[in-house]
Amino acid sequence: MNELNYDEMVQKALKMVVRDALRAVAANGLPGSHHFYVTFRTDHPQAVVPTYLAERHPEEITIVLQYQFWDLDITDHSFEVTLSFNDIHERLVVPFNAITSFVDPSVKFGLQFAPIMELSQDMMDFLPQQESPVRPEETQSGSSNVIVLDAFRKK
After folding, report:
1. Would you say residue 92 lies in a domain?
2. How many CB atoms lie within 10 A of CB 155?
3. In a domain, 155, yes or no
4. Residue 38 lies in a domain
5. pTM above 0.85?
6. Residue 115 maps to which CATH number?
7. Which residue in 17, 28, 96, 140 is a FRET match for 72, CA 20 to 30 A apart?
8. Residues 10, 14, 17, 19: what is their CA dihedral angle, to the nearest 10 degrees?
9. C-alpha 51, offset from chain centre
């Protein structure tokens, strides 16, 4: 038997935290002062962003889900949302594997990820991902509630 791949299991579980938070918001709206900053790779093969945004942000963009977002739809592998950019409504598709960070500053919560970009979506589901270390001073609020698991990784 091969070793248990705890990194893979933890990464999948943390991506499901993001998915479940978005599903709750899609069903019930944002509760209280909750809002999300979602940073993702615009160059991820399954990400769908308007060309002009991809040209201005060729690698990564941060979107805010707070006041003006519409039609939030969640699947097992991605979420879709309509946002306004300079008063133009645009539909984005964000694969969970393209997300590099997810922050809810209202409760000082954040997650950091490194995306998997080269493989098909089916293959991505079975591969481990590693998050980038985040220091508290790099987070939005200076909180230390960012989950970083590098200390537990086998070298």
Report:
1. yes
2. 3
3. no
4. yes
5. no
6. 2.30.30.220
7. 140
8. -110
9. 20
